[in-house]
# Entry
Amino acid sequence: MTTQLAYFDFDGSRGLDCRLALALAGVAFEDDRVARADWPARKPTMPFGAMPVLTVDGKQLAQANAILVYVGRTNGLHPTDPWEAAQHEALMASVEDLRAKVPGKAATDDETRAAREAFAAGWLTAWAKTVEGAIEGPFVSGAAPQVVDVKLYVILRSLASGTYDHIPASFLDAYPKARGLFEAVDALPAIRGWFAPKA
Ligand SMILES: N[C@@H](CCC(=O)N[C@@H](CS)C(=O)NCC(=O)O)C(=O)O
# Structure
């Protein structure tokens, strides 16, 4: 079986969701990092004209969450119980909501600050409370990490590292289970190994 994952050449967002899920699953894959300059030529070759795209034995699968569920189901990293699986998928969808809703950079920094502070106090706080309540600990379903934990890790990593100007890195301090999930995923050997400098 050959497996490739196509995404832009940076470790973040939906591409990192999928790379880390494959790493956690122990699946050897070609990490097809598409340069921005090559994107116009590659875009028409991707389903929905976007990435990430997983290619397994020549067949393409688009949409980050579909890729995660596939990787999870084929590697024992997604619940077999339909209700529990759907709960995990709801959490994964909520991360996509967050990515869509976080205000982008406005014309001025003051406007960006106002929009981001309002977002943090409103939508993001409600999201974090729901996520906090969904985590058994340290991972969503207890002791074993699954693909949902990887998805949450990637977005919590952005929040914890101050990626979004004017959303303070201390935002997570009010959510000990979410912070605990972030730290537990971050400490997993497969995740450490992925971030280790490659030879
Ligand atoms: N709903 C899709 C969104 C995919 C998406 O928007 N990918 C972005 C990168 S994160 C992309 O390919 N942007 C380039 C483009 O649309 O031309 C998913 O979850 O995978």
Summary: Strands lie at 3-8, 30-34, 53-56, 59-62. Residues 109-134 form the longest helix (26 residues). Helices lie at 13-25, 39-42, 64-74, 82-101, 109-134, 147-160, 176-186, 189-195. The chain has two domains: 3-75, 82-188.
